[in-house]
Specification:
mainly alpha, single chain, binds 3-hydroxybutanoyl-coenzyme A
Length: 316
Amino acid sequence: MIKDSEKELEKKFQEKIDRGESIEPKDWMPERYRKQLIRMMGQHAHSEIVGMLPEGNWITRAPSLKRKAVLLAKVQDEAGHGLYIYSGTETLGISRDEMNSELLSGKAKYSSIFNYPTLSWADMGAIGWLVDGAAIINQTALAKCSYGPYARAMVRICKEENFHHKQGYEILATLMKGTEEQREMAQDAVNRFWWPSMMMFGPSDKNSPNSEELMRWKVKRFSNDELRQRFVDRTVPQAENIGIKIPDPALKWNEETRHYDFGEINWEEFYNVISGKGICNKERLQARNEAHDKGAWVREAALAYAKKQASQEFAA
Ligand code: 3HC
């Protein structure tokens, strides 16, 4: 049987994508497709794990037992999302150790948003409402992506993100019904997290080197700017509902396009943060490396136990 040429295989692969069929781990795929998915899924998983740090900072400072329990549940969820997406990424032939060392060495990216400090309790509200709100927009689209394991992981993760989003919005709504000082704290948090949340969707479409290919392969179902616009259109009415001001003087409803017009993103800040020069980049990487080193004994014990189990089974 004559083997299909690479060209023929690529043609059949694209036809499968165009028919809306999902690509599974055992299917033939262009090496470039595999590499793109490893990059995107790996960064997504890293984002979930690093994203635990800014919120973890406030678990011991939560204003009530209820808030502490909810925040604890959210941070645990993020850990689960990370492990879930790492497992999905491993189906592409990269090991967990390789991904972990890429993160710890600073080689792999994770979402820019987690390189900002969390300065007050209200930041937990801003993160839940804005950051998880942006993630929901992005991940709902990814739930229809062509790579089966990724799409299926997103279905479950989006359900939990909705709880994260609601609890964040409720924190801010409560503060906005509080004292003048509490209202100022909520507004200050949104002032600091609005633009970094807008940056989560990536550079503008014209400056997005990966989008064309990812859209052709239906990994990305919408462009960076389309999802960013969807985030603004959905979030502004929610802000108005609780009396929070979006820190963008150019924000204005456009009757013609039926969307909000908004101001220019500070792209210099964006590229600074994603190239490691953000406020917390060093601190986040150091925390991850320390956690990894402190956890070495757990890995060794688990490995020793697994080896003992295996040798006993072999001897039996
Ligand atoms: N933070 C860090 N790097 C970013 C970025 C961001 N917000 N946005 C873009 N970049 C990087 C890209 O990784 C790429 O660099 P690389 O080629 O070296 O990897 C470069 O900037 C150019 O951007 P592109 O638009 O060409 O890259 P993509 O097509 O990959 O689009 C993306 C970027 C929209 C982030 C896309 O990768 C994506 O949708 N990823 C999956 C979702 C994800 O990672 N979400 C993380 C959010 S945090 C989260 O979900 C946790 C939740 O609990 C809040």
